[in-house]
């Protein structure tokens, strides 16, 4: 009976901490594989949009100078 108590204790601790560590690792991998690339894609899109607006504005200024 006395050898069963440590087994149950360590087994319970293993199960408890396994899911706790699994959750932390899953969160880190989600941040690495989904959140960071999403932020980079968003910033890239904002830069492209700003560049497109700047080119359109320059094009309109050139057209106005021609008339």
UniProtKB/TrEMBL annotation:
Residues 47-56 have a biased composition (Basic residues). Residues 47-67 are annotated as: Disordered. The keyword Membrane applies. Residues 57-67 have a biased composition (Basic and acidic residues). It comes from the Archaea. InterPro entries: DUF8005 (IPR058318). The chain crosses the membrane at residues 6-31. Keywords: Membrane, Transmembrane, Transmembrane helix. This is Uncharacterized protein. It comes from Natribaculum luteum. The lineage of its organism: Archaea, Methanobacteriati, Methanobacteriota, Stenosarchaea group, Halobacteria.
């Amino acid at each position: 009976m006395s050898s069963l108590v440590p087994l149950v204790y360590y087994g319970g601790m293993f199960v408890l901490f396994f899911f706790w560590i699994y959750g932390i690792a899953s969160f880190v991998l989600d941040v690495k594989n989904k959140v960071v690339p999403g932020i980079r894609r968003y910033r890239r899109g904002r830069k492209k949009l700003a560049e497109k607006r700047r080119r359109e504005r320059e094009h309109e200024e050139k057209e106005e100078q021609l008339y």
